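Annex B. Sample input.
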Amino acid sequence: MRGALYLFIATLLAAVGWISSKLVVDEMPGEVFIASRFMLASLILLPFCYKSIWRLRAKQLLLACGVGIFLGMSLQIWVFAVSISNSLSEGAFIMSLAMIIAPMTAWFLFKVKPHRAFWLALPISVVGMMLLSLSNGWQVETSQWYFLLASSLLSVHFVLNKKISRSIKPLDSICLQLFMVGLVAAVYVAFTQQLSFEVNDSLIFWFVVSTVIATSVRYVFQTLGQYQVKMETAALIMILEPIWTMILSFSLLDEQISLQKVIGGALIFISLSVYIKLSKPPKNAN
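Annex B, continued. Sample output.
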């Protein structure tokens, strides 16, 4: 139960991250935000894992950093989508589709055929996605395409991260990957952005919330929880994130949520639940 509680808290903190990120990117360039946020977050985690990171072999370091680059690319696109989106709840549900897209990604990259649960969950999630995105007729908003692209890249990260999880401790991997996310964003900023924005109390507050609470603390709780519960249970709890994001967006950002969007989000939630439940191996499996 303690592990489940840790994951439950992690989903709440992740939802807070959606809100704080939106408020920050309204004040400063998203790429600068990602660079500084994740660099600092990795430095906050470093004291807890620097000894074991120092003992990693060069191949392990390269693998973790390489996987972190895919996470960095996903988050670069995600923060741009957040900056132009009028509906964070839609974005959160679309990003949650990464779990459904991941089996197709594994099939494409490593010839691992998806479980039959994937083919049952996929049409449900597609209908949910249509209800979320086609609220204005047959017209998909630009931000939704970017969220979908970010979700696809995140699925690549999921697949590759699972590949390296047996050889690298989770906290070591998270610290290195968060650093690479910040580095990818910093390189992009160095070549494309001009650092012109005004720092105020509100920006500092939400930046600290996003960096410390929604990134460093969130990943610590998530890691502790994943250590103590089964993978299927962890995945089921983690899909609460878009639910909390929708509630916070409605409460704090005055986001308008129509019945169609609620039904679309519910269908995506159901599709993820179906996939996790049906893909769970039998209890007597060796």
